[in-house]
Amino acid sequence: MIVERWINWVTLLAFMVVPLWALVTDEPFTITLATRAAILALAAVGLNIALGIGGLVSLGHAAFFGLGGYAMGILAFHAQNYTPLELGPFTTEGTKSMPVIWLTAIIAAALAGLIIGLLSLRTAGVYFIMITLAFGQMFFYFAISWSAYGGEDGLSIYVRNGFPGLNTLVPIQFFGICFVALCLSLYVHWRLRSSPFGLALNAARQVPQRVETVGLNPYRLKLVAFVISAAITGLAGALFADLNRFVSPAMFSWQLSGELIVLIIIGGVGRLMGPVIGAAIFVALEHWLGGLTDFWHIWLGVILLLIVLFGRGGVVGLLTGKAGPHV
Amino acid sequence: MSTILIIEQVLNGLQFGVMLFLMAAGLTLIFGVMGLINLAHGSFYMVGAFAAAATAGATGSFLLALVAALAAAALAGALVEMVVIRRLYKAAHLDQVLATFALILIFSEGTRWVFGSFPLFLEIPAWLSGPVALPGGILYPVYRLTLIVIGVLVALGLWWLTARTRIGVQIRAGENDREMIAALGVDISKLYTLVFALGAALAGLAGALVGAIQSVQVGMGEPVLILAFVVIVIGGIGSIKGAFVGALLVGLTDTLGGIFLP
Amino acid sequence: MSDPILATRGLSKSFGALKATDDVSIDLLPGEIHAIIGPNGAGKSTLIEQISGGLRPDAGSVHLMGQDVTHQNTQARAKAGLGRTFQISALAMEDTVLENALLGAIGQSARPWRFWSGVAGDRTLVERAFNALERVGLSDAADERTANLSHGQRRQLEIAVALTLSPKAFVMDEPMAGLGAEGSKFLTGFLDTLRDEAPILLVEHDMDAVFALADRITVLVYGKVIASGTTDDIRRSAEVREAYLGEDA
User: Fold this and answer.
1) Is A196 on the interface with C (CB under 8 A)?
2) Distance CA A97, CA B55 (A)
């Protein structure tokens, strides 16, 4: 435990130092990479609550990531084009304000998480994996055919959205926003994990029949976890869209759902810092291997296979020498 | 909307359905017999299509192309089963998802490496191109009709294989009790490799056949794979009959829904 | 005579042609240990599942404290006061012993929806959990990972989790299974005192324990009650001898 606590702090520190060093040495691209890693880590921290504590192998989390992205895209699109957005009886002008966008993203993703969770948590095992995958694809195809918002081509937002008191166009300031969001999500994970809810959820993953016989409902525990997980991943989607100033159906793709799981596996399932370490390594690999070869995904595949076949527990498991939770 | 158009679309739906069945049959067998969720099944579809396109390009023979598709996909399936999959039968679903996701990355990027990013084209042979007149004066492409016939024949063959042959009995026994069938002296690991290769070959065949209507490109397998999952959920894991009914249902819904819904 | 805490009336459950439970009516009275015995395949496990809510009977009813709970699920029955232990330990193996007991305490408090307060800092929960561990003699192992426990310790923890619920009735599925002589002796002594707290419906294969503990015994064979009465009644029953000895011969 003590080793893991050290790993956690060192990881967070490194995550702060690298972009600051890049700022000093004037390498803005490194800051962008760090921002990308922080956002992917945030999305994976969300998934890790469902997957790592609740044991829910969701292959559809891109749905929430994409919803967050489109929440940003749609609101900012209307604001930049001065076209009103009509939602039934309500009309809004859209917005370029990050806090409003985030709130919308979180609510939209949580609602979708509730609906998908209500339906798919009735099943378990292989069926759950396939049904979440199918839901994710529904959003993907819907986005492709939604021509009002760019269809297959997606939406470009010309200027990054604003945050009161900050200049979000400065890379290090936007990194700061994403890093704080990541730290907050880690805090949420940590509090949840040590709360009565977290304990019950963790038990529901391992022995659902026991959880029932003490008078708790494993279905509801997992549903709530799924909704929280979706909300966090949705927030990450909104930030990701702001990083790229672009949203497209690719944010809904099932490859992205797969990659989020991969991040967690590389770092360590169910570990607080698993997603963070995984995202950092993933982005670094993507950058370096991607620079060496056009086909870096082959090597990612090979690494992933080796981890699955020989090294469960990920980097954190390797460093602490302790197996992680079994999902 | 005219009756002719509706009949045409129903035939299109059937054609799509039987191709989905070829995908779903292998998946559901692998699910049912080995308890394995295989995301990489779409890769065999792609491997079949590329093998067919390359062979047809080199030899000009469509039949040879189909043979190559079957052989390449079966070989890829057997290889993957022996190197990776057999270590996963008793593993958690998460491990299966991850390992087969890794296989997709390797197959897709490997194919892109060999064949490049541009789609290949597989041409319908002269003796199968053109329309045929159906009763009622409907003109329908011979090739698509052939696909329906092939799909139905494969379905019958699979039903015969699982219900009437010694190997089918072993497969179904293995589904219920791995240890028992091993104790009876059946080489269970060979049986599994065989089933996996058979499933892969069917996917490869589907890829090659559909490849002649659409383009042959990296990533072509995954959308079909996801529909095949839907088919299996509808038909019930492990059931060939269920997969057939489910595949036709999904094929028809997908085709007709695209026409009649806004 | 007082009203039964737990009762079944005409419970029947078939799996195809097999009648796993056939018109079973039993009572569990305050302060008693009522043992259910029978040869393998007599339907004891199926009966327990129907009582605790895991299986729906084809016919008949289950009553807890006079309430018909036949159509309630496992959670509702647990909340109503049923404390069940499993034949094969159902524990969260990755968690510590204390965390397993805490799960019971959280269930008993019926407040799993606390997301923000640490469970370790909740004195009510921890005291309840620790108290239960102490009673079964596991408080020294509280911080041990459950997977590292011996088989006997896991059996003790099974009971500790049920204790945290302060149930109105215990339903125990072979608590002695796999215990050595020492363990059985300890547990027998413990259950003997537990009956004053809440009556125990005890399914058990260990006949020494059954005859030492039970106030009443019901014998199931092929899903049917063939005899029910005091330990002496059962010892003398011709049907019971036939069922057991006939099978063994």
Assistant:
1) yes
2) 56
Which among C53, C99, C108 has CB closest to A199?
C99
In a domain, A76, yes or no: yes
Beta strands A90-92; A85-87: pairing state? antiparallel
| Pair (C181, C222) in one structural domain | yes
Residues C195 and C150 both lie in one domain: no
- Taking phi over 0 as left and psi of -120 to 50 as alpha, with beta for the rest, C15 belongs to beta
Residue of A nearest to C113 (CA): A197
Closest to C171 (Cα-Cα) out of C49, C12, C2: C49
Is there a contact between B43 and B108 (Cβ–Cβ < 8 Å)? yes
Contact C115 A215 (CB under 8 A): no
Last residue of a domain, one of C142, C166, C190: C166
Residue A275's DSSP bridge partners are none
The three-point CA angle B127-B128-B133 to 5° equals 110
| Chains C and B in direct contact, meaning 3 or more beta-carbon pairs closer than 8 angstroms | no
A139 token code pair: 């959003």
d(Cα C110, Cα A317) in Å, to the nearest integer? Answer: 34
Range(s) of the domain holding residue C99: 94-166
Distance CA B109, CA B124 (A): 27
Q: How far is CA A285 from CA A111, A315, C163, in A?
A: 34, 15, 52
> Greatest CA span in chain B, whole angstroms?
61
Round to whole Å and give the CA distance between A62 and A47: 10
The reported pTM is 0.91
Nearest CA to CA, how far is A271 from chain C (Å)?
13
pLDDT tens by residue, chain B, 262 residues? 578 888 888 999 999 999 999 999 999 988 888 888 999 999 999 999 999 999 999 998 999 999 999 999 999 999 999 999 999 988 888 999 999 999 999 999 999 999 988 899 888 888 888 888 888 778 889 999 999 999 999 999 998 888 888 877 777 776 666 666 677 777 788 888 999 999 999 999 999 999 999 889 998 999 899 999 999 988 888 888 999 999 999 999 988 887 766 5
Q: What is the C-alpha separation between A151 and A141, in angstroms, rounded?
A: 9
Chain A partners within 8 Å of B222 (Cβ): 254
SS3 C153: helix
Tokens of B43: 């890769």
Same domain, C30 and C139: no
Q: Residue B105 and residue A297: Cβ atoms within 8 Å?
A: yes
Q: 């959280």: which residue's tokens?
A: C106
| Alpha helices (H) in chain C, listed in sequence order | 44-52, 74-80, 97-109, 123-135, 151-164, 181-194, 207-213, 231-236, 238-248
Give the one of A129, A298, A312 whose C-beta lies nearest to B109's C-beta: A298
CB contact B224 to A (< 8 Å): no
- What are the chain A neighbours of C92 within 8 Å (beta carbons)? 202-203, 206-207, 210
| Number of helices and strands in chain A (H, E) | 13, 4
CB B206 within 8 A of CB B48: yes
Structure tokens at A250: 């690719």
**ipTM rounded to 2 decimals:** 0.90
A277's CB contacts (< 8 A; 6+ apart) are A7, A11, A266, A267, A268, A314, A315, A316
CATH number of the domain within which A309 lies: 1.10.3470
- C-beta atoms surrounding C228 within 10 Å: 18
Report the DSSP pairing between strands A85-87 and C67-68. unpaired
Can you give the residue range of the structural domain that contains A207?
A: 2-320
Distance CA C160, CA C135 (A): 8
Confirm whether A327 is domain-assigned.
no
For chain A, report the end-to-end CA distance as a whole number of angstroms.
Answer: 20
